[in-house]
Amino acid sequence: KAPVSYKEMLKKELEYKDSLHFKKDEAYWQGQFQPGNEPIYTGINGYEPLEKARKKHKNPDYRSAATVSLFSKGAHEIQLIPKDMVDSMRKYSSEKRVPIQTMVMLAYRSYLSKVNRREKDVMYFTTIARRATLAEKNSGGSRVQFMPFRTILEENMTFQGALEALSERQSSIYKHANYDSLKCIALFNSVYGKKQTYGYCSGSLTFQPVPLKGPNGVKIHTKWYGNGAAPSNFYITIMDDDGSGALRGYYEYQTKVVSRERILDYHEYMLRLIDTGVRNPDITIGELLDI
Questions:
Q1: What gap in Å lies between CA 229 and CA 235, rounded to an integer?
Q2: Which of 32, 52, 136, 243 fits a 20 to 30 Å CA distance from 10?
Q3: H helix or E strand, kind and range, residue 124
Q4: Predicted local confidence at residue 194, as pLDDT
């Protein structure tokens, strides 16, 4: 079939900017960023960058650390979430009525908490593919938003409770995900001054486990190639492993900031957390930080 006209999609995008929906989305994001409610840096390598920033600004309560560079060499690593674990995740998801994605999100934010003195306030970027309608899916082009995703979880919260909280938070953000990512960042920066969003979010997470299958059962093989650069410290994409039943994790990272050993340490922790949680939904977030 011929693709849907992208011009029609573009017209709708332009109309959105003058709509009531846009005003509601903007009001939502303005409400997310308030003076006196500043987030705190939680990087993949721990709190050292924040300590350096505090010394530089001579302020022990400083909460931002600039760690992103557009001129950094990058590399990527591929690691799997095994099929048997994915099967357990799907079963748990069906029985407990929580999205599989939230298990990956919980592992991501828990690791950042773990290496940052058990900080309960964690923020990173979540990417959102804006392809809700058939017309959007079939019109070509790329429409992806990246939004700051902040969670504050107490250590006495259970694994299941945390998944429910993340699911609720995710749903809240997705309702307002048509808002321009760059406008969202501009709002953030207008509230917290010169401290950029990247001074709090050192990484991003994408979850897109759409089964990769060709017509009539034809198998598909995908492969990623790096261009040798990475603008952020740490970026993960979790997607289908070409029909094997596993999930494939693509890790892109700045080689001058993040080591391959750190990537492997994170991946192993993610597997431990998911495996432990689905076996024991009542285990607490605090206990998961110690596994």
A1: 12
A2: 32
A3: strand 121-129
A4: 67
pLDDT at 149: 94
C-alpha torsion angle, residues 53, 58, 59, 60 (rounded to 10): 80
The first and second tokens of residue 223, run together, are 């492969």
**SS3 call for 152:** strand
CA 247/CA 188 separation, integer angstroms = 33
Considering 10-14, 108-112, 134-138, 220-224, the range whose residues carry the highest mean pLDDT is: 108-112
Tokens of 90: 């799907």
The number of C-alpha atoms within 13 Å of 81 and in the hemisphere containing its C-beta is 33
Above 80 in pLDDT, residue 13? yes
Using alpha carbons only, give the angle 259, 126, 4 rounded to the nearest 5 degrees: 120
Alpha-carbon span 20 to 109, nearest angstrom: 34
68, 231 in Cβ contact below 8 A?
yes
Residues 6+ apart with CB under 8 A from 205: 104, 105, 108, 124, 125, 126, 127, 149, 235, 236, 238
Q: How far is CA 30 from CA 139, 184, 194, in A?
A: 31, 8, 17
CB 120 within 8 A of CB 155: yes
Strands 203-208 and 121-129: what pairing?
parallel
49 and 200 Cβ atoms separated by less than 8 Å = no
In degrees and rounded to multiples of 5, residue 84 shows phi and psi of: -65, -35
At 224, list the tokens: 């990623």
On the question of pLDDT at 141 being above 90, the answer is no
> pTM to 2 decimals?
0.92
Q: What are phi and psi of 149, to 5 degrees?
A: -120, 105
